[in-house]
Amino acid sequence: VPISPIYTPHDLAYIAGDTGASAIICADRNYGYVVKVMDKLGIKLVVACGLADLLPAYKRLFGWLFDKVPKGRTAKAAHTATLSDLVRAGGSAAQAAGDPSELAEILYTGGTTKHPKGVPITHELLIGCCREQLAYSSSVIEPSENVILGSAPMFHVLGQTCGLGTIFTYGGALVVQPRVNLDAMLEAAQSQRARTLIGVPALYRMILEHDRLDQYDLSSLDYCFSGGDVMPLEVARRWERRFNKRIYIGYGSTETVGGVGLNPAGQETPPGCMGIVLKSKLVRAVDPVTMAEVPPGKPGELLVHSSPMVAAYWNKPEETARSFVEINGKLFYRTGDIVAIDEERRLYFVDRSMDTIKHKGYRVSATEIEATLQEHPAVIESCVVGLPDEKVGERIKAFVVLKKDVKGVTGYDLIQWCRKSLVSYKIPQYIEFRDMLPKSKVGKLLRREIRAEEAERRQG
Known about the structure:
Distance between the termini: 47 Å
Largest sheet: 12 strands, mixed
Helix content: 25-40%
Structural class: alpha/beta
Shape: globular
Number of helices: 13
């Protein structure tokens, strides 16, 4: 169960409890988070890993002397082991899974709920999706010779199918880094002669605007891929002018284990196209209310079927019933995205139907942030929306109604409140106080009216 290293103890406790995990492998700097929650859970073993654990002693010494290796120590306890301990202990080699349909991992994803949802993925599904994704660059790079600079994190489906997948499918090499640092990333691309760059649209914009970009040689890059969010045409065009290389765009989700549509390397695609539907996927664009299929080229909610496919969320029957639907004997996943599909099976993004915000490539649940704000003793109501932003996709804005007898609560106070239980990319960037929020006749919050108001404000 791969999770983000920036998750708070609140998130860690929820996911560990939801999966019934009995062991946690963490970076030494996150050991304190684990200690805070392990007594509440059935955790029997904690493996704390340091970046320099497996280096020879003389290299660690140089690292300490030049302040490149942290000098702190992890507390020893009966339930704690280090990566070095495990390596020294050895043991028999792991056996390959006997049944391809057995569970390989559970990836957690955001969406419309307060808590993240676990997506159970089998060995067969994971390997198949990785092979299909990586094969799309084979016309320009021999897969076994590929050197992938994977800026997409391994706990995200983009990092798994486009990066980690090369290790257990075709071979090749994967260059990973602990966090996004543009100079370190560009230096690694140059020194390792990276052939493939993986990233969300925000990363490509950051690289283009980096002050020291001219100091690095990126000529080895043959394949640049973007996923996780809609690629602005302006960024794609600037990249092609600057490097004379195209950014290939794909569309997918955690529930579909990555790619639904991909633009094949070496082929021209129309502006705004998110990719051609993969052979392994059966898709429909439907009316979200009636579920009737819409004509080609018309917008509708995207439904995706494959065999095999994810069929349910982990321990979430109600969410499963809302997100998976059976049509003519086939199970389809409701993506919640409004797209148009043309006669050539090309996908074009139109809008999001769900209350999901795309911030820096992450799916952020508006409901989760609203629930966190409403747990504050001064807040009676809240509404969270995404505001279009060319750098990060969408920025998060919260509209808040305070209790009548409350005074002195500021936006800064509420942001600090959110920091206690939400990871950094879910924290609202803006807080606006209101006397009331728009609702339907039955009391349902009308986010679309808030969005419309913000759109008018930006235009005028």
